Amino acid sequence: MALEPLQQVMKSRFINSGVAEQKMVSVAAAMARDGANTSCY
Q1: pTM above 0.90, yes or no
Q2: Helix or strand or coil: residue 27?
Q3: How far, in Å, CA of 15 to CA of 12, rounded?
Q4: Residue 12: is its pLDDT beyond 70?
């Protein structure tokens, strides 16, 4: 329930990885490798 406002703002750029910080680091690394622009600005 706490992340729904963020999900609405970020739309398809929102990835909920739960409390798995290690998994999220892997997701971020793969996105960066593929050239994803993950800035919020």
Answers
A1: no
A2: helix
A3: 8
A4: yes
